[in-house]
Design brief:
single chain; 405 residues; mainly beta; Immunoglobulin-like; Neuraminidase; eight-stranded mixed β-sheet; five-stranded mixed β-sheet; 30 strands; 6% helix; 45% strand; elongated
Amino acid sequence: MIHRLLNFLICFAAFLPVGAQVSGCTDPLAQNYDPLAMTNDGTCVYAPTGISPYLTLELPTILSETSGLIDWDGTIWTHNDDTDIRLYALDPQDATITQECILAGITNQDWEDIDQDNTWIYVGDFGNNSSGNRQNLHILRIEKATLCSGQPLIDTLWFSYEDQTDFGNQGSNNSDFDCESMVVGADSIYLFTKQWKSLGTSVYTLPKVPGDHTANLRESWPVNGLITGATWLEEKRLLALCGYSTLLQPFLYLCYDYPEHNFFSGNKRRVELTLPFHQIEGISTTDGLDYTISNERFSQIVMVPPRLHRVDLNDYLSAYLDGSTGIDYDQSEVFDLRIKLEGETIVINASNRRIGQILRVVDGYGKVVAEETLRSVMQRIEISSAPAGLYIVQVGNDARTVMKL
């Protein structure tokens, strides 16, 4: 089989322009996964799926309007979205309040999300659902070292949307310029709007420095829901949004393996949460696999108290994170074989059943470049001394191709 495949690929490669790369869906979990694709073109399609929390904890009643979450120093921090000017630290084991920090001299018109970097905590006072015409949208920046001192160092980033020109009263829950989500990166802040009319979200960017700013529109995407929270692992190119449908069915929206900071140009997977009538508001993670989410109190159809939930997304994201970070996870329940080129290193991700099989790399002329036994579910082979060209990577009786430029 390997000889027939080799002959075909040599002939195929002859018609490829120099430097050409096959683009397509590179996620083995997708319905349209293309094992020959080396560049992710963002076209992956996924089967409908859902997940249940493995742990649910009731929050204290004082947090009935919990709206954002961060993990900081082994503690979960949250806040309410109206009037209350305190940040609350929660014990992740039982959701009890372990500390309250007052932001003295500050008001809370509509705090909707919270994020952080190494030095600062950022609180977004940018909720805009009552009339859609707020002109005092801003983000508070609080120095971590002074947060609970009684006199925290706080400054403000004021902003307006570059494409909002109509500031007439839009009525309640009728604007596409509402916002409940943000993430903070190394250089910028990214806002994700909650679009009541179009049921999509738009991404806007701001600098991280205090002052008056214009939020620049980057991209939009039809998520078919209302986005209420975000958490981001910038270095792993993994963004997770949370939200709910117009019928209050909560969901997660996973964006990963995207170029630069173009969140919706890579993989986009929706995961339903089996928590009907839960108004999910906050989300956080430290490793991209285990997530904490929160819901505020809801009492219109049924009475749902404020709660904290933990969900395990290993089945959805560990294959991607394993390939991109080198963390050794057991992928036997996720996929069987994935091979890609990272720089000048071939990365092989395989299920447990393949351990012990012969791993062989063959160049376009049939010469064996490397041969060894597959020893683990993630293995790397350096081909830095090999020339540019098409290579066949064979594991057992299966083969994949990679193109070294």
